[in-house]
Specification:
Blueprint: H1 22-25, H2 32-54, H3 60-67, H4 75-98, H5 100-119, H6 124-152, H7 158-186, H8 191-194, H9 196-210, H10 228-236, H11 239-243, H12 258-277, H13 287-309, H14 318-321, H15 323-352, H16 358-378, H17 380-386, H18 388-405, H19 416-441, H20 446-483, H21 489-492, H22 501-531, H23 541-549
Helix pairs in contact: 2-6, 2-7, 2-9, 4-5, 4-6, 4-12, 4-20, 5-6, 5-9, 6-20, 7-16, 12-13, 12-20, 15-16, 15-19, 15-20, 15-22, 16-19, 17-18, 18-19, 18-22, 20-22
């Protein structure tokens, strides 16, 4: 039998991973006529989540001019990010308990309610609060969309749908600031949020109309109640034996671990607030920072105790006991860390060092979004031959070399030089990220796929928060040493139009150090893959069949 993980058989000796069960039989399906509309809905939902992470940035002057609150406007971004990140594990577990469709519908509705409230905001405080409501729905969009994409497509076809989602995410993220500026400049900033309503309603209708879940074993459905398609898949996977004793006829849904959900939410909120605001709103060693980090540590201990006693914990222990999942979580956490360098610091470099305008600086960054989806879509031709881990190793090694090359760019240089490096970096990261996501999703049954996918996305988001704090501190330190402490990264934006040679050289040095730090994150990801990840991912039998028959 053909094993897409790079070998035959392919359990890899990993404990805790069962053979395919009846939970796979409950995976969402769609008729040939219906899968296209479902994919369209997923792409629309992904675009909404990505756009609202960046679309507000260029509309800040208009929003502050209307509502005031300049001193706290950064929470328009931080609040949304916090809400998305801390809810990912919760939604992942809810997906496995209640099914994907109700969670996606509920999350989309919550996101649209938040958008409508943002458009009606009367003060900066109310807008920040409503942005958090938006983020609570955005967490459901991100995690559930990735999970449904894995449910709908067999292993061999997953790179295509993941590449589509990656393209949508990258395009929306880059286009967000431009769209926000256009709407704020030529209409009204409130349209930034109102435009979500028709797009979201179309996505809702498509999901409600075309996405079908024949049954959910994890939610207590009986085997007898499944549709013909579900029974066929269950027979193919020999689900009767594997599921025997797990789900009896008439069994009830497992209880939702609401105490664990609150504990996870509170811990994540304190930790991410400390990371996002530290060094900006207050010094790192000040009482607010130390208090937040101390509170997050204490709540983390409480969370562990609560989760150990829960019958169905929000973050189950097997997430970290299984080598494959733990390795992918750590590796993609490092990816989130290194991605801060190009997405946050490259536009500043392009404007201050290369002398480009904001739009041209965005095009330098967008080179990465051109190659990433292409190599991601083609990655299955590589990992079906050499395996998931080795493909990811090749990708992150190439990314490491590209990141190390950035400090050797000439000063001031030409725009095509960093653009070329970003093109190469995107191609390398497409080979790195997608095989890991597809691979880890293929090692778990349907009833664990939502939790696993959410854990991967959560670690990547936390990595981005850590990276923003760490690299921001590095850049500010270099700027302070080069400019005598007169300038930091936050005030730099106001000096870009009149940057002299000393300021340009200081920014160049600061961004060089940031890219060296990003290279360190890439090296960390490589080390994790080489030492922790199994040589062959323990792909479940159903996915092996899919890989050979697709």
């Amino acid at each position: 039998m053909y094993d897409p993980s790079g070998g035959v058989g392919g359990r890899g000796g990993e404990s805790g991973v069962s053979e395919t069960t009846a939970e796979q039989a409950a995976a969402p399906v769609a008729t040939p006529r219906g899968r296209g509309p479902v994919v369209a809905a997923l792409m629309l939902g992904m675009a909404l989540a990505a756009l609202d992470g960046t679309v507000v940035s260029t509309a800040v002057p208009q929003i502050v001019g209307d509502l005031g609150g300049l001193s706290v406007f950064s929470w328009l971004f931080s609040g949304y990010l916090l809400a998305v990140t801390v809810t990912l594990p919760v939604y992942g577990k809810l997906c496995d308990t209640f099914g994907r469709k109700p969670v996606l519908i509920a999350g989309t509705v919550l996101f649209l309610i938040g958008s409508l409230l943002c458009a009606a905001a009367w003060s900066m405080g109310s807008l920040i609060a409503f942005r958090i409501v938006q983020g609570l729905g955005g967490g459901a969009l991100q995690g559930t969309i990735q999970t449904i994409a894995a449910d709908l497509y067999p292993l061999k076809e997953r790179p295509k749908i993941q590449a589509k989602l990656s393209s949508v995410w990258a395009t929306a993220s880059v286009a967000g600031p431009a769209a926000g500026g256009l709407l704020a400049g030529y209409a009204d900033w409130r349209w930034i949020f109102l435009i979500n309503l028709p797009v979201g309603l179309v996505a809702l209708w498509l999901v409600a109309r075309y996405l079908v879940e024949p049954g959910r074993a994890g939610a207590g459905r009986t085997r007898a109640g499944r549709t013909g398609a579900g029974r066929t898949r269950a027979r193919t996977a020999q689900a009767g034996k594997a599921q025997a004793g797990k789900t009896e006829a008439g069994a009830t849904r497992p209880p939702v671990d609401w105490a664990g959900a609150v504990a996870v939410f509170a811990t994540g909120a304190l930790l991410l607030t400390a990371l996002v605001q530290g060094g900006i709103a207050w010094p790192w060693l000040s009482a607010p920072s130390l208090g937040l980090f101390g509170g997050a540590l204490a709540l983390a201990g409480v969370t562990v105790l609560v989760e150990r006693r829960a019958a169905e914990p929000i973050i189950p222990g097997w997430i970290w006991r299984r080598r494959t999942i733990a390795a992918v979580n750590l590796a993609l956490g490092a990816l989130g860390l290194l991605m801060v360098a190009p997405t946050v610091f490259l536009p500043t470099y392009a404007q201050a060092v290369l002398g480009l305008g904001p739009i041209a600086a965005g095009f330098v960054l967008s080179a990465m979004t051109l190659s990433w989806p292409v190599t991601a879509a083609l990655s299955n031709r590589i990992y079906t031959r050499i395996g998931f881990r080795l493909t990811a190793v090749v990708g992150i090694t190439l990314a490491l070399l590209v990141l190390l090359a950035f400090p050797f760019l000439p000063f001031p240089g030409e725009p095509w030089q960093p653009a070329l490096l970003m093109l190469l970096l995107g191609g390398a990261l497409g080979l790195f990220q997608l095989p890991l996501i597809v691979g880890v999703q293929s090692t778990v049954p349907y009833g664990e796929r939502g939790t696993t996918t959410a854990s991967v996305l959560f670690c990547r988001q936390v990595g981005q928060s850590v990276g923003a704090a760490l690299f921001g501190a590095i850049a500010n330190g270099v700027l302070a040493s080069r400019l005598g402490g007169a300038t930091d990264l936050d005030s730099l934006a106001y000096a870009l139009d009149h940057a002299d040679d000393s300021l340009r050289r200081a920014v160049d040095a600061a961004v060089d150090y940031v890219y060296l730090g990003a290279a360190g994150a890439a090296a960390l990801a490589l080390l994790v893959l080489l030492t922790l990840a199994p040589r062959r991912f323990p792909v479940l039998k159903e996915h092996q069949d899919e890989g050979s028959s697709a």
